Amino acid sequence: MTGSVRLCGVVSQMTRRRRILVLLICCMSLLIVSLDNTIVNVALPSLGHDLHAPVSGLQWTVDAYTLTLASLLMLAGSTADRVGRRRTFQTGLVIFTAGSLLCSLAPSLGWLVAARIVQAVGGSMLNPVAMSIITNTFTDRRERAQAIGVWGGVVGVSMALGPVVGGLLTDAVNWRAIFWINVPIGLLALFLTWRFVPESKAPSARRIDPVGQVLVIVLLGTLTYGIIEGRAAGPAVSAVCFVVAAAALAALVVFELRRPEPLIDMRFFRSAPFSGAAVMAVSGFAGLGAFLFLNTLYLQSHRGLSALAAGLCTLPVAATTTIVGPLSGRLVGTRGPRVPLIVAGVCLAAAGALLSQVTLTTPLPLLLGIYLVFGIGFGMLNPPITNTAVSGMPLAQAGVAAAVASTSRQVGQSLGVAIAGSMASSAAAYRVNALYGLIVLVVALLTTGRWARATAERTAARLAESPQVTLSRG
C-alpha cells in the first residue's frame, strides 16, 4: 500500500507532506551524526593544545566515537525492531544531545573521550533506526529510492559543512563550540519526532545476542588499542591485543554460525558481492579516516593554516563527493556497480600515491587538485557499496545487508585513523592509503563479475529456504 506505515501491526495512511516531513526529521539525525565524523577533525590541533593531548589522544578522540558506533549499530537496529523505532530514535537523540553537551564541558582528554562514547551510544540509535523508519514510511519503490537518494545526499552536505563549520567555530570561539551546534538540532529533532513520527515495530523482532555483541566490542576494541598504543605500550602489549582480537573473531564466527538468531548472519559472507562490499567499505573508509586525520594536522600544524582555512581546503573533497555521488548512483542503476568501483579504486590509489609525495612547499593549487582526485574516488565508492552488499539478497535480508555495510564503514574509518597515527611518517601513511585504493580496485574486479553474481544467487536461495531467523531490517 503506497505511502503507508505499519504502526505496531496497524497500517495507517500518511499524506505525502507527512512522509516528506518524516524524511527531513530522519535527515536531521544523519546530519548531526555525520557532522561529528568531520567537524571534530578540523578542531584537533586546537583541542590537543588546550588539553595537552598527544597524537594518540587525538586518535582516541576520533576513534572512541566511530568504534562505539560500529560496535552498536546492529544492536540498535534489533532493539528498535523490538521496542519500537520511534522510541529508540528518541532515546538516541536524548543521549546524543546530552553527550554533545558533555563533550563541550570536558575538563580533560579522558573526560572528552568518555563523552564521545556517550555521544556515539546515542548516535548508534539514530542512523540505522532512521533508515528503518524511512523504509517503513516510503513503501512505494520509486518514492523509497528518491528518499534514500536524499538521505545519501545529506552525507555529502555534512562532509561539506563539517570542516568549514568546525573551522569557523574553532577560530571564532574555541573547539568546544563544535559540540554546541548539536544541542539545538538534537532538541528540535526530538520535538519533531514526538510530534510527527509514528511508532512502528517489526512483526517478529529477533532476540538480542549479548554474547555476539560482547565479542564484537572485544574484537574492535583490542584491535584498535593494539594499533594506536602499540608504539607507546610496547610490542608485548600489541601482541596480546592482536591475539585477543583474533580469538574474539574466531569465537564470533563459531558462535554466530550456531545461534538461531545471530547478531551477524555469517552465511551472508558466502555471497562474493556481500563479502566484497564489506572489504571495500572497510578499505575505502579507512582511506577517508586517514585522509581527514592526516590533512588536518598537516594543514594546521605543519603549514600553519587556521582551522577555518584548513576546513575550506577540504571543500574540493566534499563538493566533488556531493556531485559525483549521484552520478555514481546512476551508473550503478544503468551499468551496475563495476565501473564506479573501478574508478573509485584507481582514484583513491592515485590520490594516496600523490599525497605521499607532498611536502611543506607543495603549491596549494596542486594540493587541492590531489584532494579533487580523492573526492572523485570517494564519491564513486560510497553509493555502490550498499548496492553490492544487497545484490541478489531476498528483500527480507536487504536491510541487514545494508546495516553490515554501514558497520563496515565505521570500522574502516576507525582503523584508518588508528593506522595513520601509528605510522612513522605521513608519507608512509599515505602509501598505505594508496594500498587501500588498490584493495578496492582488486576486490571490485573479483566480486562484480558473473561468478560473483552466481554466489549471491546461491546464497539468496539458501537464505530464502532456511528456517533460521535472520536479522530484521534496521
Beta strand count: 2
Distance between the termini: 20 Å
**What is the percentage of strand-forming residues?**
under 5%
Number of helices: 20
Largest sheet: 2 strands, antiparallel
- The poorly predicted ranges are 1-12, 467-474
- Return the structural class: mainly alpha
Radius of gyration: 21 Å
Strand neighbour order, sheet with most strands:
1-2
Mean pLDDT comes to 84
Percentage of residues assigned to helices: over 70%
What form results from the Cα inertia axes? globular
Question: What series of H and E elements makes up the topology?
Answer: EEHHHHHHHHHHHHHHHHHHHH
Q: How is the secondary structure organized here?
A:
Blueprint: E1 4-7, E2 10-13, H1 16-42, H2 44-51, H3 55-83, H4 85-105, H5 109-124, H6 127-137, H7 141-172, H8 177-180, H9 182-196, H10 210-228, H11 230-233, H12 235-258, H13 272-302, H14 307-313, H15 315-335, H16 338-355, H17 364-390, H18 395-422, H19 426-447, H20 450-465
Antiparallel strand pairs: 1-2
Main attributes?
globular, two-stranded antiparallel sheet, 2% strand, mainly alpha, 474 residues
Description:
The protein is mainly α and 474 residues long. Helix content is 80%, strand content 2%. The protein is built from 20 helices and two strands. A hairpin with a 2-residue loop joins strand 1 (4-7) and strand 2. Mean pLDDT is 84; it is low at 1-12 and 467-474.
